[in-house]
Amino acid sequence: MSQHEGNGRIQERDESRRSIRRRSGGRRVTRPAGTDSSVALLTEGYLYGRNRFERAGGDLFETRLMLRPATVVYGADAARMFYDGDRFGRERAMPTSVMHLLQDEGSVQSLTGAAHRRRKSLFVELLMDDAAIADVQSVYRNEWARAVRTWTGEVVLHDELVRLLTRVALRWVGIAPSNVDVDRLSGDLIAMINGAGSFGPANWAARARRRNAERWARDVIAADRRESERLRLSGRKSSPADVRQTPLRRLANARGDDDRPLPLEVAAVELLNVLRPTVAVARFIVFGAHAMNRWPGWRRRLRTGATPEQDALLLTHEVRRCYPFFPVIGGTATRSFEWRDRVFEPGDWVLLDLYATNHDERIWGDSTVFRPDRFRDWDGDPFTLVPQGAGDAASGHRCPGERATVAIMETAMLELARLDYYLPEQDLSIALNRFPALPHSGFLIGLLPPARARGRAPSPLG
Ligand code: HEM
Question: Which PANTHER family match (predicted)?
Fold first, then answer.
């Protein structure tokens, strides 16, 4: 991959950005980006990129989306180009409808370079160390046991998991669920996730829910800051060990580049940046349930096999690889460089197709076959399995919650495999043109109390 720093070598600057510059045989040529393919994206959904890469026979194609020229790329080399070396920022990298729900002004995702690395280190410390991971797993187990005790008859697994994971996330960051209107907060958080792929009134409604959650988060941060101050004034904080440094407290006391506490709004947004995606893990757990239903041998391996923990990890990776979640991640070029004979300039919009990379035949072989055992000899290359971004989480934009996601899913898969349930009649299909995807029914399960189970046909799940 060749790369050129600075603008010196780019002669044909097109200020209107209505055309795409390419290099061909050492010569730069200009060609129009073609017609807008927003409708095709909405119709073909997650398969939009794969269909075109197949036709183009390469790992890059140029198009227009929402009237804006875009280059779509996929594969491990593309992921390396996209994530290594600070080539891309996230400003104007997502449609506003998505941006307003999933990130915000001043949040970690909106930052670049040194400011991003500094803020990111906070997330890495809070979310990625061994103690945080063990903690989230233990909280999950505890909340799962609590929730299952209350389930009777038939329940929609996704809805239950959303409430459960809201409680997990709260306890994980150090907020007692008993002090929170959990139903309302979980409704706000899932509205942001569900609404991310919507436009118009549905999107506006989700934004209103987001504003509710932001107000709540600001109050929580402000109250925690007051509590820190009270402890400081009372002299009880003679050493940092005197104050329990919950993730909430560390977020509330985090400082910005000016060494002052983060503005209240920014700290609140960052709190939501931990709570909301933790709740989003519900989708992956439901996909895991879907996989265990479709390939019941995996459920048996987790339930009665010799190596359930190891198998839960294999299953978790394959579920995250195969099932649809984030379709693409967008970036805006921060400087000039060249890749695949194509010159990129500052401001160019590039989309890395995560779904297509996770189904890239060159990496995975039989990519559409669900085969968790493929991860037995996976080398762990950070540019191949990319449902949560690629590269290094500490220095780039890769998701800092990935370790926690995997840990929660492993625990959830094991607990679910051990639960006795049956599947009532329902529509389990997953529409690939709905962002973000979910089985149509939300995965309805029926609980089998021993007394009711007698006389019923055996569970299809074994
Ligand atoms: C449902 C599972 C999850 C998925 C599919 C997911 C996916 C992603 C993706 C695709 C990105 C964007 C990477 C980029 O901009 O290049 C991201 C970033 C991020 N994720 Fe996750 N994530 C998940 C879970 C989590 C969890 C559990 C947390 C926190 C507890 C979390 C916190 C974040 C944060 C703070 C960022 C911004 C990172 C940055 O810009 O440097 N995510 N995630």
Answer: CYTOCHROME P450 26 (PTHR24286), LANOSTEROL 14-ALPHA DEMETHYLASE (PTHR24286:SF24)
**Residue whose CA lies nearest to ligand 1 atom number 16:** 397
Q: How many CB atoms within 10 Å of residue 323?
A: 23
- pLDDT average, residue stretch 358-371: 97
- Any ligand 1 atom below 6 A from CB of 405: yes
Three-class secondary structure of residue 444 per DSSP = strand
Q: Using the predicted structure, report yes or no on whether residue 451 has a pLDDT greater than 70.
A: no
Shortest-distance Cα residue to atom 17 of ligand 1: 399
Ligand 1 and 404: CB distance under 6 A: yes
Rounded Cα–Cα distance for residues 337 and 85 (Å)? 11
Show the CA angle centred on residue 459, arms to residues 457 and 461, nearest 5°: 155
Distance (Å) from CA 237 to ligand 1 centroid:
34
For the chain, the average pLDDT equals 88
The tens digit of pLDDT for each residue in 151-164 reads 999 999 999 999 99
Rg (CA), the chain: 23
Q: Which atom of ligand 1 is nearest to the CA of 393?
A: 41
Residue of 445, 438, 408, 440 lying closest to 283 (CA atoms):
438
* Ligand 1, pocket-test mutation among 399, 405, 408, 409, most atoms within 8 A of CB: 399
Q: Ligand 1 pocket check: which of 140, 388, 392 to mutate, most ligand atoms within 8 Å of Cβ?
A: 388
Q: What is the pLDDT of residue 237?
A: 57
DSSP 137-182: HHHHHHHHHHHHHH--SEEEHHHHHHHHHHHHHHHHHT--GGGS-H
CB of 278 shorter than 6 A to ligand 1: yes
Domains assigned to the chain: 19-453 (1.10.630.10)
List pLDDT tens digits, range 77-117: 999 999 998 899 998 888 777 877 787 778 999 999 999 99
Q: Which helix (H) or strand (E) holds 135?
A: helix 130-150
Output phi, psi for 255, to 5 deg: -115, 150
Find out whether 147 and 170 touch, Cβ atoms under 8 Å: no
Residues 6 or more apart whose Cβ sits within 8 Å of residue 322: 291, 358, 359, 370
In the block, tokens 């394959």 appear at 318
Please write the tens of the pLDDT for every residue from 267-311.
999 999 999 999 999 999 999 999 999 999 999 999 999 999 999
